[in-house]
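Crash report, auto-generated. Payload:
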Amino acid sequence: MDGQMMDQPLLLNDLLWRTERLFHDKRILTRLGPGSYHSYTYREYGRRVRRLASALKSLGVEHGDRVGTIAWNHYRHFETYFGVPGIGAVLHTINMRLFPEQQQYLINHADDSVLIIDEDQIALVEQLVALGIPNVRAFIVIGDGPLPETTLTPVHRYEDLVASGDENFEFPTFSENTASAMCYTSATTGDPKGVVYSHRAQVLQAMCLAMHDKLNMSERQVWLEVAPMFHANGWNIPHTALLQGATLVLPGVHPVDGDYVQIIEDLKVTGMNAAVTIGTMMRDFIRDSDRDWDLSTLDTMWLGGQAPSRAIMEWWEQSYGTHVVQGYGMTECTPQICFSSIKSTLTEQSSPEEIYALRQKQGQPIPLMKIKVLDESGNELPWDDKSVGDFWVQSPFTAAAYLNDDRTAENMVDGWFRTGDVGCIDPDGYVSLKDRSKDLIKSGGEWISSIDLENALMEHPKVREATVISVPHEKWLERPLACVVPEDDSLDDDELRAFLGQRFAKWWLPDEFLLLSEIPKTSVGKFNKKELRSMHAAGGSDGMRSTLGVGQRHPVA
Amino acid sequence: MDGQMMDQPLLLNDLLWRTERLFHDKRILTRLGPGSYHSYTYREYGRRVRRLASALKSLGVEHGDRVGTIAWNHYRHFETYFGVPGIGAVLHTINMRLFPEQQQYLINHADDSVLIIDEDQIALVEQLVALGIPNVRAFIVIGDGPLPETTLTPVHRYEDLVASGDENFEFPTFSENTASAMCYTSATTGDPKGVVYSHRAQVLQAMCLAMHDKLNMSERQVWLEVAPMFHANGWNIPHTALLQGATLVLPGVHPVDGDYVQIIEDLKVTGMNAAVTIGTMMRDFIRDSDRDWDLSTLDTMWLGGQAPSRAIMEWWEQSYGTHVVQGYGMTECTPQICFSSIKSTLTEQSSPEEIYALRQKQGQPIPLMKIKVLDESGNELPWDDKSVGDFWVQSPFTAAAYLNDDRTAENMVDGWFRTGDVGCIDPDGYVSLKDRSKDLIKSGGEWISSIDLENALMEHPKVREATVISVPHEKWLERPLACVVPEDDSLDDDELRAFLGQRFAKWWLPDEFLLLSEIPKTSVGKFNKKELRSMHAAGGSDGMRSTLGVGQRHPVA
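Recovered output after restart:
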């Protein structure tokens, strides 16, 4: 027997419907430059979103078409967040930090038919065209002035397009399972994998994040979205801010650490979300600054991507009364999986030490999210805070498949998704990750594939063996370290750096290339990265050199 | 193009899955008597819910079967909230305050196959059996002691049944559109109308209520559910408390005003929801009490059903710092439609007078809820706080139909539901109801149908004309007043009261029977209730008598 309720789909359009009416006077602000902000209301936002949607339709964008963006966090990028899915098209936010060959791959794999790009990305996109993105049939350039000279064609000014649209455009209705957005995630091997979100998933995720005991997103928040909007829906924070009618603050183009601090003071920001490194760099900026900053309005700082250190939690708490919280998510989960609020019963029973330890865990699963940890044989492990295994999740906002990708079967099994993370769960459902996806390095909030670097190194004629491990870094939290056994003694760092520089973005390149006589192996003959990391932790690069020997292994005399 | 997300349904079972694990140590408390409480954890709750579910299955309850309850607010009633829908059966909560013929109608119309009843309802249910409820094939009696003598058969002790169940029972998975619960709502004419909820509707509604800017239901709340659990899912509050892992407090059998006050003091209750009359009666109890009460923990008092007066808001605020909020809902909407949180921009701009006026409005629509006001020709009216019309709503938790009822077509039109309320919407989306469903009287939070009373009165041989209007009442907020034109002078109040007493519950009976010479009519010949209400407001019953004449209209000499 079915319930007799209306068959009303969960659509992003309907979140906008409500916000335009109820919170029409609340604002979206974008940093333009020092002390200068663009500001408009959700009413104006809604009008422009509808203009954009109707203009995209006029341009021939159909239900199901993919529209790529390469853009910073600003109000126009946010307009695409609702304008593109509003007509049933799919917003494909492209990571600006990838190197061009990766971007080319994503655009072709997603079959983007239109690209909406920031003006400062024109040279890059011209390069992509040269590499080959044959299915893109229009380019839309976001900027304030006239359209710059470009070989891109056909090309439109974003503002002209919006001006040509109909502010009374009515969004169509369609199934809540319709694709709304997509993002690619780095893979341990091979090309990035595409995740396609639905309206249903994004609406449900925003509702979960708007609940109490999460990031504290109420209507009265002034929320600074630092996490890039090309990262897994900007952590779905812009949607949640809109749902709640919160004031949304976007840092604009090329922000640096001091800009965030300035924005918080200028606009009396009350909450923000960013990668852990940003929280650290903001602290360093303030420490080194020659004036005091009034950040007393900042209640909540959500640091994600990695676990924030106790030191950084304490510094913000003591300096500004800012509560540092963390969540854990991934592109495949729209993206939040866990959030680290502390249960009242634990708050009452625990020492400050215990509370800090709890706050450094990845948190409890958000509503609608089921989790489990399995051992190597696929048996479910107890929630005892000790039994470590593969971490699996299941929810209406978790990917069931990667887009056109035969790696789906590796990770999506029996209705569950294998995160690739390894960890344990405590008796209250708090997750502790012990080891992230073994072969990825997270540097400043961005993934670097150690396998990709290794494979490239191994192609160098003077390299016999090579592996890349993650080592801790004060600023970026992790950086790649290359361990190389050379074929002959003529190989040096510079040659390897230049060799990798031909294919990878600069920030991917290992900071150090350790030329060693051998690389330890596991029992099955794989590079023993765990041992390498332990050796590095104990004695640094010098210790590794002295243990493993330097350079080519010369035949024993 | 569809998103590639897991096809995970929104099921009540999955809310329970999370709460059993994450909030296993949080508690559900039920008042047993003065200073005495039953208390157990959500872990124990979950085990008993699964035992109940498996025992119901053993009893032959199948997917889609209706299971009726006639019970007070206590932990065992709450067990049925998840145990019955958990197996795909439908929880039919029957209003304890209806008179037996109405209950008989509901049970037969819903086709309840099992009834779960409180021990003190046995005599009533025996009466229902005598009236005829032929499809009920088992009775389950909730109580602590042995089964009382009863003619009900077959009859089971609830506790025996739970003890026989399997605490490791695994809930099946099914479509989120599966019926989860049902309630009947009074109609202006004819029998009550059945509303059938789905898992999807109840999960979405609980998520909305758990969001910031609603009733403030966080994990750390100690929440007292005063609203009857047979009323529209107990306003969906028990589900929301469970979702959030909040401490849930239930007032047990036969609670009176002073009990609520005692519970709040005993258990340090932080939030509660109740009909407006309860908030008023609690105030009166405290005022008349000969001792001080420490209700300082009580942050939030949600008074619903009608708009709370400014006086009651101020009294609670000043006495205990308790913030009185209101919501607006109805059985057809699972049940919440609006919630009266005040936007920060309005808080900043408004005088205290304006804020109180705003707080007395019914509030803004909750997320996923669309609203509109239409004039008599079906044209949409502007949101100008002036244009009054029919109030319509649309959401995934609004009824698309009444169960097997040809009155569906009157209220469900083009995917919208006509609430029967009349009101306007202000430019910020705050709804003000001006006139409720014209022919219903809301007395102490319960509906009384004036039409039903009128129809019965008209059947009395000495009644020529009769109409029943709603008049304000200090305690019950509204009470019915009967206006009767007698056929002859021998008719008196007592005769009419006794006549109605044969078919209606005592609390339905009008407090006063005004015997008048005439009843004013509208231009189309209907009783002019609006004019009657105005006359009563201006001069009371005496004024009405002097204007309209007393008793039988004697022929003009």
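Post-recovery validation: The CA atoms of residues 199 and 448 of chain B lie 29 Å apart.
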